């Protein structure tokens, strides 16, 4: 399975988002963290900004919605042109209905889990989703340290996806860098979000290539 690198624009310059999207043209997707100051204690950007990003981005957008009531708000991100829309399991009231709606609108549907949320209760949803996002930091902020305690959950998700025969991607988000990406890939992740590691690098395209190479060498 190819390793996908999705830089998070949370670490971009918010006054120069179009420029910083162009800087990651060699990436697979641009990861856009939407935070509402309720589900997480931070506020980033919402639909009007996202709609413009979708118009100017050289790569497809991977929306990560850290918001309350995704059942109400998530479909608009698919309508705005997101290639992938990921909502949190802890926030959704009707995850199957929401995932079906996102797919009907042409987006991939992702289900995100906080570090303390087990994957087991959601394994019967595998046929309804395109991706599981295992958060490897507590959602809310960039630049945190990768939590190794999430590795068993990545392994469990990979095992269940393998047994299902379904093509469900496993994304990791938080603290992913050259120092940690091998562990996440070994555990079974195939989509890697990296914010501070990519935008903090001297040479952004070289960092994307290095991360992709490391992940591919450790992928299953
Ligand atoms: O969802 C997120 C935080 O909630 C971000 O995508 C994530 O933290 C990326 O930043 P970094 O790679 O710097 O950890
Ligand atoms: Co994110």
Molecular structure report:
The protein is α/β, with parallel strands linked by helices and 220 residues long. The protein has a single domain, classed as Aldolase class I (TIM Barrel, Alpha-Beta Barrel). It has 8 helices and 8 strands; from the N terminus they run E-H-E-H-E-H-E-H-E-E-H-E-H-E-H-H. The chain has an 8-stranded parallel β-sheet. Helix 3 packs parallel to helix 4 and helix 6 (181-187) runs parallel beside helix 8. The structure holds ribulose-5-phosphate (5RP) and cobalt (II) ion. Ribulose-5-phosphate binds next to strand 2, strand 3, strand 8 and helix 7. Catalyzes the reversible epimerization of D-ribulose 5-phosphate to D-xylulose 5-phosphate. Pfam families: Ribul_P_3_epim. GO terms for molecular function: D-ribulose-phosphate 3-epimerase activity. Keywords: Carbohydrate metabolism, Isomerase, Metal-binding. It comes from Isoptericola peretonis.
Principal-axis shape equals globular
Overall strand count: 8
What's the rounded overall pLDDT mean? 98
Task: Spell out which ligands are present.
Answer: ribulose-5-phosphate, cobalt (II) ion
Which structural class do the helices and strands define? Answer: alpha/beta
Question: The CATH topology, please?
Answer: TIM Barrel
Radius of gyration, whole Å: 16 Å
CATH architecture: Alpha-Beta Barrel
Name the strands of the widest sheet in spatial order.
Answer: 1-8-7-6-5-4-3-2
Total number of domains: 1
Relative helix content? 25-40%
**CATH superfamily grouping:** Aldolase class I
The rounded distance between the terminal residues' Cα atoms is 7 Å
Order of helices and strands: EHEHEHEHEEHEHEHH
Low-confidence stretches: none
Percentage of residues in strands: 15-25%
